[in-house]
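Our collaborator T.R. sent over the components below with a one-line note: 'Predict the complex.' Nothing else. No constraints on interfaces, no templates requested, no preferences about which chain binds where. So this is a plain run: every listed entity goes in together, and whatever single assembly comes back becomes the starting point for the next discussion.
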Amino acid sequence: MDRERLRGEVKELLVSGLRLDVRPADIVDGAPIFGDGLGLDSIDALELVVLVEERFRLSIPDEEVGKRAFASVDALVEFILQERGE
Amino acid sequence: MPPAVVVTGIGAVTALGEGVGALAAGLAAGRCAIGPLTLFPYAGHAAIAAEVRASMSSPSGPLPRATVRRLSRPDRFALVAAAEACGAAGLGPDLGRDAAVYVGITTGGMLETEEAYRRRRAGEDDRFRLSRLLGTPLATAGAVVSQALGLYGRRETFSTACSSSALAVAMAADAVRRGVVPIALAVGTDGLCRLTYAGFDALQALDPEPCRPFDRDRRGLSLGEGAAALVLETAAHARARGARPQAAVLGWAATSDAHHVTAPHPEGAGALAALGAALADARVGPDAVDYVNAHGSGTRQNDAVEVGVLRRVFGRRLGHLPVSSAKSQLGHCLGAAGAVEAVVTVLALREGLLPPTLNLQHPDPAWDDLDLVPAAGRRASLGVAVSSSYGFGGHNVSLVLGREAR
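Returned assembly:
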């Protein structure tokens, strides 16, 4: 799958799934998802696991994997591609 | 003499707008805020309500952005009203260390909970989302308010149907007067939801027209939503810190009918006992009362029972005593009603302006001797007023408020 399109889909999911008050395009590709930028908390983390697992039909089994996957939008895109074996 | 309890700050979010200023202006103008129900589709007898349409510029304070983003509507209402009241009272971080929070609420974040179920059933979500269920417990309103405003004292949540926040005001005043807490914030909040709407509709308690309290043709209530908050402390405590009292809470009482799950006691035994005990608690005789802020829901039964109670307490003097129902403007705000109407009563005392009973086209002939304040903008010098709230299950709360402590 095209990285750029997947990146857009991930940002869209963040905004609509977590009901964020920002535009998808304003989310920085390499910035930490759980840094200060988006103002997310531990409940958003629980939500995001569910959202990503449902949308992309994959599994985030533990915190270790979650930390790696949600390091940034770019990291999440790489994680999704890798899980799908693309 | 027990210490006098005064109100040093008020706040409100109602269908008349955000803030006490919008409420006062709407009351003075006699604007009816009951309009089309837009929050959710509903195909029942009535599709009108007094909805809060204000933008709710949320004062988050130290509340994390993520928490603010997920607040249910009633929790947001509560926060905005509480912040306004604390701001007016000068209740800041130093006083917050020992400040108590008393909340009255009945359905809380039910609308958001219903939305979670709807999305799940419609297949929009494969699993329930935690973020859509966080506001379900009634205790979240108090939690949000205390966290955002830094209020570290005891926190209590009351849910006694439509008397919930009148009870919250009474219990806050009680704790202050007994010296249990130095200062207390009483809050009432509720938001419209399908559950409430369907329940009252099933009871055939909704008027398809904007509600007409005390009218011959009244057919029930109109639902509303919102929040109100009052900061209470002893007069001595207020004086010592230079806070200006806006009114006083002179007395209060609560009783149970122990009679029926929805209907009031036919002779209003419990309501009569509550009003009598509240006046006794205030050390105020019926002759000293200048205004009655009625429960006035607009159902056939409530209004008849309520007028009967007023007749027994005030006798012939009732003909010269203004009685009005703010529900004709704001709808029935359920868990928020008691606190909203306490704030309405504080405004009446403070401004010397009687809130009207709107939509009164044909006063019930059984009480054509009553002064139901059919028009807005009437001035009167008011010293003492009572505000009563009656809840399903027969729970009755009366508050006696004064322009000044006695």
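Summary for T.R.: Chain B touches chain A through 13 residues (CB under 8 Å).
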